[in-house]
Amino acid sequence: MKKLGSPIKFHWLKLFSIGLILFIFGLLIGLAVSFPSGILEKRLAREIEKQGQVAIDDGSISLGLLKVKGTGVVVRSQKDLWPPVEISSFDLTPLWLSLFSGNPGLHLDSRLLDGQLQADLYRNGSLQASADGLKLDFPLQNGWNMKVSGVLSAAHVEGTVPLDQTSPSRIDLTLANVNVAETGKTTAMLKLGTITLKASGRGQNFRIETLSAAGGDFAVSGRGNLRVGSSPAKSMLSLRLEIDPQPGVDPALVELLKLAAHERSGGGYELRVSGNMARPTVN
Question: How much is the pTM?
Answer without folding.
Answer: 0.77
